[in-house]
Structures are given as C-alpha cells and as structure tokens.
Amino acid sequence: MQRQEMIDKLHHRLHDWNQEIDKLEAKASVASANAKADYRDSIEHMRARKEQAKTRIDELQNASDDAWDDIKQGAEQALSSLKEAYDSAKHKF
Questions:
Q1: Any residues with CB less than 8 A from the CB of 55 and at least 6 apart, and which?
Q2: Whole-angstrom Cα distance, residue 38 to residue 31?
Q3: How many CA atoms, within 13 angstroms, populate the side-chain half-sphere of residue 18?
Q4: Most-buried pick from 43, 44, 79, 88 (CB within 10 A)?
Q5: CB–CB of 54/14 below 8 Å?
Q6: Euclidean distance between CA atoms 63 and 76, whole angstroms
C-alpha cells in the first residue's frame, strides 16, 4: 500500500470511530443519570484514544521515510486501542 493510501485509510477509520462515538453520545443523552455518568466516562476515554490516534496519523503524514514504519505501527496501535475502548463501552451498555 502506498503511503498516501495508508494515511487516507487511517483517516477514514478515524472518521468511522467519530461516528461510533456520536452514536454512544446519543444513547447517553437518553440514559438514566447513573448510566449517563458511565457513558460520559467511556466517551471521554474514547475521545482521548481518538486524539492519540489522530496525533499518530498526523505524525505519520509528516514522517521521513526512515521513520515511516515505526510511526505507521504506532498509528495502527492507537486505532486498535480506540477500538478496544469502544468494544469495552459497547459491551458495558
């Protein structure tokens, strides 16, 4: 996969995760007070993971050829961490 294709793919995945976070926020808005607090905590955790992933993707975009593989792996791990946070929240609610 070419460099720009990879970056575009990661941006697309990040966009998809934004949509999933929005869905959880919609559920949180109609939840009971106790559940809202749990949702908020999970959503904040996911947003932090999303920001880490975005940072890694931005680093990847500006990476030298020598650093590309290491940073690419970090970006993929950050998105994987976001997925784990989402899966945890989804199973919780």
A1: 78
A2: 10
A3: 9
A4: 79
A5: yes
A6: 15
Residue with tokens 């940073």: 71
- pTM of the shown model: 0.79
Q: Between the CA of residue 56 and those of 41, 45, 61, what are the distances in Å?
A: 23, 17, 9
Each residue's pLDDT, cut to its tens digit, for the chain (93 residues) gives: 688 898 999 999 999 989 999 998 898 888 888 888 888 888 999 999 999 999 988 998 888 888 888 888 888 898 899 889 888 887 877
Single-letter code of the amino acid located at 88: S
Q: Which amino acid is at 26?
A: A
* Sequence letter at residue 1: M
Neighbours of 28 (CB within 10 A): 17
